[in-house]
């Protein structure tokens, strides 16, 4: 497959960029010609950010899986679509060619249909990183069901909330998942999530760890049994459901600064176009390259750059079940060597953690196949950037620092590998079709270079968030109301003398822990569920590996040290347990400081600014504390800092 829309040099980038901003509809309709449609569109773009209403390729009919699978069968039937590397290096890897993946997706589409799944139904997918996860996702898309993949690290309570919010009637899961030394009992977590649930009709369970599981008659069925029924009938094709361009493709829950996670909704056509376009251009994918994105499919990075983008481009995508540090810290390098990986896309937190093991684990692995390196999820510090460049890329691989969000569906700001310049810790320039602007607190545009502000986007790109599931108003308030007629990213950024963007981090109450987004309010709510917790305040602080750590200030009933419930250390563990139950282990605070009061204004608002400074280790310049109800509390908190 050659990509007529692949940018070949910097002049073309500038040229295409200008065209895309001058006339987005014309620009994207030309690109859309290179995809498979059941019916063409009548209106390329129709939008306003005030509702918001964003419609791309209105009138068109398609199925994204025909673009990810069927259209490659003629030339690439025997080309590997998916390479799967298991957690344990001693277990055999699996390779699914485009033909094989097509067949498996079609078979599982039958299974979904046989179990009652119809177009528009919500299917929750809670699985480890095994090929069946990719198959389940694509089969949902093929039958027109809306998938909602929930990352395997979330708790039963989190799943229950997401099931309810999406009114999901179906679940696809596994008995368990392997991650490093751990064996996570996913089905058992699902069973807990289903206590009291009256909406879910069917749970399809595949086998991976063969952990004992409870199977409930009438509700739970085995994946393997269901596939057998389809095989007995000799079914290897499944007609792809005809979808409207704007029909929802999936829901993916993500955290915000307030309340419960929101279900970000992406639609079929725009998402397909933008993930494919950005995949091909940012990584400069060449036919035959092996692309290794280390994310989990439970996050947007996995959706867009393990599955949809690469498969739609006819690429070979590598999916890894395990973790970077097991059985040793050379696991990534071993995989790159084993499969002669050409593109590695990972997160700064992984790079920093691997840096910590020194060069020993890197040596002895041949990394010469690498052509392009990528990072995503958080700002990359210069030290990590240089280590990645020198020791992994051997100074011959461009590094793409890709800035984007769950809500943006695909990469919005990044250099294009080897085509546009890289600059350490800068995401650099916007992709064609993306019109970033910086605004000040009042929403006034900050023009010119060498400036900073809040990062907004001026007009829609094809994979803009369409709505938050079941609550369009929330989508509007969260993203389109802070600054009228702009999409607000929640990030701060600066623009250097060359117009390159550097993302400086969130400007709202959202933390970025190891590249995962966690709302401070969400963690506080979980901590406050603990029976003895009166109140809490959560802030982020710089963490060497995770980027940000979670620091919780907690008012615990009674003096924690002498409390009959145990020592401070035990109470911290109880709080960890509580957070793990409510959200999942990923949200456990790194530090818990017990305090007798929190710094509040006279109107009762917690002054997080002060807590943030204390958590960061600042003791002198805490700013104006005269408006506090009880300034004395600040002294106590400072003295008790962990
Ligand atoms: C937030 C989005 C996009 C997939 C992974 C995270 C931060 C993301 C970068 C980057 C600096 C980055 C932002 C953004 N972020 N990429 N290259 N440089 N910051 O998706 O969970 O939706 O989080 O991650 O703060 O808003 P997400």
Total DSSP E strands: 30
Distance between the termini: 56 Å
List all distinct small molecules, including ions and cofactors, that are bound in this structure. 5'-O-[(S)-butoxy(hydroxy)phosphoryl]adenosine
CATH architecture descriptor of the domain at 93-241: 3-Layer(aba) Sandwich
Quote the average pLDDT. Answer: 96
| Beta-strand fraction estimate | 15-25%
- Give helix % range: 25-40%
The CATH topology of the domain at 93-241: Rossmann fold
Could you say which overall geometry the principal axes of the C-alpha atoms support?
globular
Largest sheet: 8 strands, mixed
Low-confidence stretches: none
How are the strands of the largest sheet arranged? 12-11-8-6-7-14-15-23
Q: If you compute it from the alpha carbons, what radius of gyration comes out, rounded to the nearest whole angstrom?
A: 24 Å
- Mind telling me the CATH class of the domain at 93-241? Alpha Beta
Query: Class by helix and strand content?
Result: alpha/beta
SS summary, helix count:
19
């Amino acid at each position: 497959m050659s990509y007529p829309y692949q940018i070949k040099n910097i002049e073309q980038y500038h040229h295409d960029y200008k065209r895309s901003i001058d006339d987005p509809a014309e620009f994207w309709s030309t690109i859309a010609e290179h995809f498979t449609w059941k019916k063409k569109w009548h209106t390329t773009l129709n939008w306003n950010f005030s509702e918001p209403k964003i419609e791309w390729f209105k009138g068109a009919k398609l199925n994204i899986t025909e673009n990810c699978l069927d259209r490659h069968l003629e030339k690439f039937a025997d080309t590997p679509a998916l390479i799967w590397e298991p957690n344990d290096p001693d277990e055999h890897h699996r390779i699914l060619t485009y033909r094989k993946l097509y067949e498996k997706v079609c078979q599982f589409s039958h299974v979904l249909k046989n179990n009652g799944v119809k177009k528009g139904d919500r299917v929750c997918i809670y699985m480890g990183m095994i090929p069946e996860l990719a198959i389940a996702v694509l089969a949902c898309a093929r039958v027109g069901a809306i998938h909602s993949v929930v990352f395997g690290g979330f708790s039963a309570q989190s799943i229950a909330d997401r099931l309810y919010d999406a009114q999901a009637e179906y679940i696809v899961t596994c008995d368990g998942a392997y991650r490093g030394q751990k064996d996570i009992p996913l089905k058992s977590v699902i069973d807990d999530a289903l206590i009291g649930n009256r909406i879910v009709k069917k749970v399809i369970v595949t086998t991976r760890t063969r952990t004992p599981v409870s199977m409930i008659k009438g509700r739970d069925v085995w994946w393997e049994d269901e596939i057998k029924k389809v095989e007995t009938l000799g079914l290897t094709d499944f007609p792809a459901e005809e979808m409207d361009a704007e029909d929802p493709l999936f829901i993916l829950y993500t955290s915000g600064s307030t309340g419960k996670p929101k279900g970000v909704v992406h639609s079929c056509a725009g998402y397909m176009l933008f993930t494919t376009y950005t995949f091909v251009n940012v990584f400069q994918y060449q036919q035959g390259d092996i692309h290794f994105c280390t994310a989990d499919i439970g996050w947007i990075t996995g959706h867009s750059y393990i599955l949809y983008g690469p498969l739609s481009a006819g690429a070979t995508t590598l999916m890894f079940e395990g973790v970077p540090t097991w059985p040793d810290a050379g696991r990534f390098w071993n995989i790159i060597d084993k499969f002669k990986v050409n593109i590695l896309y990972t997160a700064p937190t992984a790079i920093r953690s691997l840096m910590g093991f020194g060069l020993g684990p890197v040596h002895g692995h041949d990394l010469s196949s690498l052509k392009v390196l990528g990072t995503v999820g958080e700002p990359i510090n210069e030290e990590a950037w240089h280590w990645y460049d020198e020791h992994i890329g051997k100074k011959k691989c461009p590094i793409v620092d890709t800035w984007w969000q769950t809500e943006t569906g695909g990469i919005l700001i990044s250099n294009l590998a080897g085509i546009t310049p890289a600059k350490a810790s800068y995401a650099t320039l916007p992709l064609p079709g993306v019109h970033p602007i910086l605004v000040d607190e009042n929403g006034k545009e900050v023009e010119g270079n060498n400036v900073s502000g809040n990062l907004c986007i001026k007009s829609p790109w094809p994979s803009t968030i369409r709505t938050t599931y079941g609550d369009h108003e929330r989508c509007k308030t969260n993203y389109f109301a802070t600054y009228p007629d702009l999409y607000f990213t929640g990030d701060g950024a600066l623009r250097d003398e060359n117009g390159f963007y550097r993302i400086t981090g969130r400007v709202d109450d959202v933390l970025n822990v190891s590249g995962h987004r966690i709302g401070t309010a969400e963690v506080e709510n979980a901590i406050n569920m603990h029976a003895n917790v009166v109140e809490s305040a959560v802030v982020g602080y710089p963490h060497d590996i995770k980027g940000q750590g979670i620091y919780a200030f907690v008012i615990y009933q009674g003096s924690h040290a002498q409390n009959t419930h145990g020592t401070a250390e035990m109470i911290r563990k109880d709080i960890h347990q509580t957070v793990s139950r409510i959200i999942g282990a990923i949200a456990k605070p790194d530090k818990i400081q017990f305090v007798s009061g929190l710094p509040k204004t006279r109107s009762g608002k917690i002054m997080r600014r002060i807590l943030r400074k204390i958590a960061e280790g600042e003791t002198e310049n805490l700013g104006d504390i005269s408006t506090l109800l009880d300034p004395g509390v600040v002294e106590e908190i400072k003295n008790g800092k962990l």
